[in-house]
Amino acid sequence: MQLSTLLNISIPMIQAPMAGVQNWRLAAAASKAGILGSIPCGMLNAEQVVCEIKNFRAQTSKPYNLNFFCHDMPKLDTQQQSKWLQKLAPYYAEFGLTPDNEVGVLRRPFDEEMAEAIAPYRPPVISFHFGLPKSELVAKVKSWGATILSSATTVEEGIWLAKNGADIVIAQGIEAGGHRATFTEAKLDEQLQTKQLVAQLVEKLPIPVIAAGGIASHQDVLMMQKLGACGTQVGTSFLLCDEADTTQVHRHALKSLAEPSAVTNVFSGRPARGIENRLMLALDFIYEQTPSFPYASAALTPLRVAAEKQGKGDFSPLWSGSNRRGCQEVSIEAMVAILNGK
């Protein structure tokens, strides 16, 4: 069954939720264009999420997706944080900055408080990253009539998601930008390209599969459909669109194509794909002493701000998939048309 039928959209495509570069405005534009717009909620509190829903619904009655993280939230390890600040000290000195112990705005998992806050709005689609929340919360979301999506980076993760409440599995290939959705002990070198993962999940799962990662053209969309995907999820190609809040530093990196993308854990504590920059290279991309997710990012914020004032993305998470050749400075509507072969 096509995604358009499953999610009540006219084009079988999802705009990937991208925290930090978008809010309800991009999601509303995507939904108006005929695909499923997504609102990233992992860094928002319950009141902020409700505000996003209200703003979206004031613009359109089209369906939308709320995206949440569902990781285990560790306690703050002060010793780990101290070592991280020591590692970053030379960079702080370079900018004349003084480190502090603030943790900043943390990415938090979906919980009872959030569920209670959004229940009155009966969101049509809820997607999760890093697995699924506890079974009681999955049941609560389903009681609203919501369709549940979650991402898998391996066949084993996809099988687990299908058995534990996901209605549709997103096959997140290694080419995908942003955080890897991995929630098992699977190693990065064991994770497949999108086309391989889609083919295997379609064969193994009793539920529909969406392709995500490296999809930047109509030809890519058609290829995923031929492999059996019910639809696609696209993120990177929307980063230069008019409705995106992508910073100028990030936009420049996306357009230049000078640096490749790579998977790193230095910006958040979890592996994520972004455009190579100074910090990633200095710490060899995967740095074993990066603080546990989500505590790593706070110490980088002052460095990011200082560097970006100089027009540099040295300490910025320049999230991007491996294929950014589809990026164009056009409206969401125009980009959807391009991806749809119009």
TrEMBL record:
A Pfam cross-reference name: NMO
Reactions catalysed, semicolon-separated, are:
3 propionate 3-nitronate + 3 O2 + H2O = 3 3-oxopropanoate + 2 nitrate + nitrite + H2O2 + 3 H(+)
Under InterPro entries, the record lists: Aldolase_TIM, NMO
Asked whether the keyword Membrane is assigned, the reply is no
Q: What GO MF annotations does this protein's record show?
A: nitronate monooxygenase activity; nucleotide binding
Q: Looking at the record's lineage, which domain of life comes first?
A: Bacteria
Q: What UniProt keywords apply to this chain's record, in alphabetical order?
A: Detoxification, Flavoprotein, FMN, Monooxygenase, Nucleotide-binding, Oxidoreductase
Which cofactor does this sequence's record say it needs? FMN
- State the Gene Ontology BP annotations: response to toxic substance
Xref: SUPFAM superfamilies: Inosine monophosphate dehydrogenase (IMPDH) (SSF51412)
- Stated family: Belongs to the nitronate monooxygenase family. NMO class I subfamily.
Report the protein name in the record: Nitronate monooxygenase
Instruction: Tell me which species this is from.
Output: Pseudoalteromonas peptidolytica F12-50-A1
